[in-house]
Write a structure and sequence with these properties.
The protein is α+β, with helices and mostly antiparallel strands. The chain has one helix and nine strands. The strands form two sheets. A five-stranded mixed sheet has the order 3-9-8-5-6, with no helix packed on it. It has a four-stranded mixed sheet with strand order 2-1-4-7, with no helix packed on it. The protein is globular and about 35 Å long.
Length: about 120
């Protein structure tokens, strides 16, 4: 008789636990949103920027990766006016810049601190 009562109690507790947990799983608001698409462009900075012109898809996030390797010229000071970005890059290293989605036909221009060197990213459909 004791085994039957214990089994019934365990079954009741399991049912209550399932009832309490199940509603939080069933709601669609708990499903994470699909991640936004993101593309990456790598630019080398040393005695200028390479490549000087790149193309990216419009309406998608862009991660701009700027690589320096024993760079000691003005290309280590990077200015991207349309983003309000200005930074001194490390002489050797990787700097990642998040660019929000841009409209088709937009051009993003990066300049060195002296305005001698530049690169352009063109956004296309």
């Amino acid at each position: 008789m004791k085994k039957t009562k214990c089994a019934l109690l365990a079954l009741a507790l399991a049912g209550m636990t399932a009832f309490l947990v199940a509603p939080s799983i069933a709601y669609s608001e708990n499903i994470p949103a699909a991640p936004e698409k993101q593309q990456t462009i790598t630019i080398s900075a040393k005695n200028g920027y390479e490549p000087e012109t790149s193309t990216a898809k419009a309406n998608e996030r862009l991660k701009l990766r700027v690589v320096t390797e024993a760079t000691f010229d003005c290309s280590t000071t990077l200015v991207i006016p349309s983003l309000g970005y200005k930074a001194r890059l490390p002489s050797t290293g990787l700097t990642e810049i998040d660019v929000p989605p841009q409209k088709p036909g937009t051009e993003l221009t990066g300049l060195c601190g002296m305005g001698m060197y530049s690169f352009t990213v063109k956004f296309v459909e």
